[in-house]
Amino acid sequence: MPLVSMRQLLDEAAKGGYGVGAFNVNNLEQVQAIMEAARETNSPAIIQASRGARKYANDRFLYHLMQAATEVYSEIPVALHQDHGNSPETCRSAIELGFTSVMMDGSLMEDAKTPADFEYNVRVTHQVVEMAHGRGVTVEGELGTLGGIEDDVGSGEVHLTNPDQAVEFVERTGVDALAVAIGTSHGAYKFTKEPDRELLAMSIIEEINQRLPTTHLVMHGSSSVPKELVDLLNRYGGEIRPTWGVPVREIQEGIKHGVRKVNVDTDLRLAATGAIRKAFAEDPGEFDPRYYLKPAREAMKKVVKARMEAFGQAGHAGDYEPISLEEMVRRYKEEGHLLTTT
Ligand code: G3H
Ligand code: 13P
Ligand code: ZN
């Protein structure tokens, strides 16, 4: 089947009361690991690419990798999403390329570092909603900022999402999905101890869900940074300091309160690097890249399968027929999110 609208995937997840993992890719092995995990668990899938990923892989390579994924895994509904678009222009180019979903991250200015004000965020996000919905493409917005700096994304400052502002933001922009800041950050170093409900403000999700029950909520920075992956990496020469991620049980709590998309990147990076370090250490005489990329791909698949099962998306790949993007355009017109004013 062709790439599917992310809105359809999330609407189905809401109906079924489950969440969908959104996994980042930069290369062939990551795409294969996620699609293979989706097949083995019979899960719908969201694959996302950051600006850095698009630059690393090259847009055309990325596009054709995803086309190959839809051909080889034709039974799996899969959405291709632009992660952390920094401007309407980045989102436009993703849509032109064939992405079925874009994130306009207007919580930060175009430099993807400086926190933006609310009016700027509303303006750029609404602009992207008009452009994207006119093509049947889904839009995720973000309100509040995450901590940490991962490559070039992040201000390093945490601003938790204000539920009052969330209501106004969704009304004025017409976004399909809203990323909320609840104290997580990108990368491996999220918390210096196991997070309690003060560090991880799950209550914000509950409050926003009560006030916006039909908006799909998104948790960023949702890697769990499992101790066994960190230990393996360190056993073979890695230097990851003691750290805590977002416990899977907290993500499951979020899913009970409207979280439908769960962003995971770091856990796959840790799994792949640990497997490669192990392979290097075990046979320093081996130099065929397949010798270390195969276990890396396997390690990533294992993480993705575990998350797909934990988030509840497993078993749901065959629940529905894909809706065309043209049909999505019609539905958006009906919803009244086209050609509105802020
Ligand atoms: O936004 C964070 C994701 O983990 C993507 O990271 O910009 O290093 O590709 P990246
Ligand atoms: P992690 O760094 O926790 O995997 O978060 C990924 C993410 O939020 C991508 O947008
Ligand atoms: Zn993110």
Shape: globular
Order of helices and strands: HEHEHHEHEHEHEHEHHEHHH
- β-strand number: 8
Mean pLDDT: 95
What value does the Rg take, in angstroms?
19 Å
Structural class: alpha/beta
- Adjacency order of strands in the biggest sheet: 1-2-3-4-5-6-7-8
In this structure, how is the largest beta sheet organized? 8 strands, parallel, barrel
Helix percentage range:
40-55%
Low-confidence stretches: none
Structural overview:
- This protein is α/β, with parallel strands linked by helices.
- 47% of the residues lie in helices and 12% in strands.
- Helix 8 links the parallel strand 6 and strand 7.
- The longest helix is centred in the last third of the chain and has 23 residues.
- The chain is globular and about 60 Å long.
- The two termini are 36 Å apart.
- Zinc ion (ZN) binds next to loops.
